[in-house]
Please model this.
Amino acid sequence: MTQEVLTGLSQASAPVGLARRMTHAIRAQGFDLAAALFGAPDAAFERLPSQAQALLMQGLVLDFTARALPGPGAELRAMDLRPGLPPMPGEALEIAGSIVARPDAETAIIAIVVEGPRGRVAEASATFRLPLAAVTATAAARPDIQLHTHRHLAALMARSAALPALGAAVAWPCDRDSLLGPIQAARRGALRPVLVGPRGLIEEIAATAGETLEGCEVLEAATPQEAAVAAVRLCREGRAAALMKGSLHTDELMSAAVARDGGLRTGRRLSHVFALDVPSYPKALFVTDAAINIFPDLKTKVDIVQNAVDLLHALGVALPKVAILSAVETVNPAIPSTLEAAALCKMADRGQITGAILDGPLAFDNAISKAAAAIKKIVSPVAGDADILLAPDLEAGNMVAKQLSYLAGADSAGIVLGARVPIILTSRADSVDSRLASVALAQVLAAAGKGSAA
Model:
């Protein structure tokens, strides 16, 4: 691919009257960036602070001077910008400039006008110091701006702020983040935590982090296994309405939760859901199961889907769209997940799974991209607009969720459904914010009466 080469003006090649033009269109991301930099509530230009409007217009002028007149190598000394009508995203703007004065051998003053389809956008006068010899540079590709503007998990936490505090047994909160999560949730009025673990160590971690245990009850436990059993017992006895993972291993907590004697089993299989706020996706995305069921069979997948659907009902999504993932979008007897996908869709048709629209098998691209679905001629209300992604197994689900977090910059929360109470299950690598979002999920579930399944 041939790259554009730009050659700037030198002191000897910049006569008064030299003029150049270019076109430019501001993408919507540019407005988003200005809104983010100046804390504006939205990216509509007319509602941006005047400083943000000036930043966008200045960017238009500077882009022209870097690429057209005087080009690379020139040093900006001063600029006077006079804003006009605000541009709108996608409008084609005409930018014209000419050299109007040469005060001395190395200085050029350039007058620049930016015109839009609705009128003049800006005028500017810029003073440059020109290089002695012309400078040539390869025009860099314009960077793609990707901003996290949806804030779905933040909206969830805002919604949970109006709900009553949730009593939660926190098993083994014995590192900084696993302790700060429930402490900060308690301070926000979201949680009434019972911290189950060694009191001395918990107090030491809190003191090191500059926190106190005010508002938190502490129940002594000597080992992670002992803490898990004690925390589960608090939930069975009704002294806690949720179970929260601390810094112990997931299998240590879940072995206590699923124990046939003294556990939190119900008539439905337990399953995990990741709630993800992906910057490039227009709504919250839920991935299941990525943490509990390793190789779920068809019967288990029915419960996994229904658990996730019930969660979205609690969150206010009346008819969630479930994409059943596989490697392909057609039924292939050699790929068992495609057969199970077809069976799940038919079970939904027969009322064995309720409250959702199911489609599958769908490859990941077809599930989340309308363009990909259109190319493959997939006609479906789910394709490209999924709320829930049902993974074929734990490995695939875990990879999808973590790739979205670490490569796509997604924020996440995690919760286990199908038990007597919601189980707030976070990774030991999760941030405090992720833990707070997971608490908010449990609050909403508890308030909707969907913390458990019969």
Remarks:
- The first strand starts at residue 5 and ends at 7.
